[in-house]
Amino acid sequence: MENVESYLEKKTMNRVSQDIYDCLLNMNELSEEDRDKYYKQLQGYRWVDKVCDLRLGKYTKCFLHGKSGGGGILVKIDVYEENISLLCKIGSHFHRYSFNETIVFQKLSLEEQMILLSNEYVQNNI
């Protein structure tokens, strides 16, 4: 089992949803309508702001300049001098995205969702 505690420690489903909302709110180029649309589409995802929190094999969505740039299954992370490149596979095609220039979200696994719900239960019953 992966060590999911490191990036989900003390987080809850509500906190993950709030992080997504706050992230979209900071995209000044988004209209309120687009923000609501993307927020609904990103339910079941988590915002990834650190490279170390990326997980290979997970469905990854990348946003560039307030628009969904696409995504796919994250298969490789390349680190160059000034850039971090994400290689995603969708169908039989591969696409590269710059972690430095995009806002990245990854789909939550069932295990991750259970951890978040457990954290929420513990926090509510303390």
Question: How are the SSEs ordered, and which strands pair?
Answer:
Blueprint: H1 5-8, H2 13-25, H3 32-41, E1 45-48, E2 59-64, E3 67-79, E4 84-90, E5 93-98, E6 103-107, H4 110-124
Antiparallel strand pairs: 1-6, 2-3, 2-6, 3-4, 4-5
State the gist of this model.
This protein is of the alpha+beta class. The protein is 33% helix and 33% strand. The protein has a single domain (5-124), classed as Roll (SH3 type barrels), CATH 2.30.30.
Question: Hey, roughly how much beta strand do the residues contain?
Answer: 25-35%
Q: Give the radius of gyration.
A: 15 Å
Largest sheet: 6 strands, antiparallel
Helix content: 25-40%
Could you tell me the CATH topology label: SH3 type barrels
CATH class annotation: Mainly Beta
Shape: globular
**Biggest β-sheet: strands ordered side by side in the sheet:** 1-6-2-3-4-5
Which class of secondary structure composition applies to the elements? alpha+beta
Architecture, according to CATH? Answer: Roll
Q: Count of DSSP E strands? A: 6
Q: From N to C, what is the helix and strand string?
A: HHHEEEEEEH
Low-confidence stretches: none
Distance between the termini: 27 Å
Number of helical segments with 4 or more residues = 4
The tally of domains stands at 1
Look at the structure and give the mean pLDDT. Answer: 88
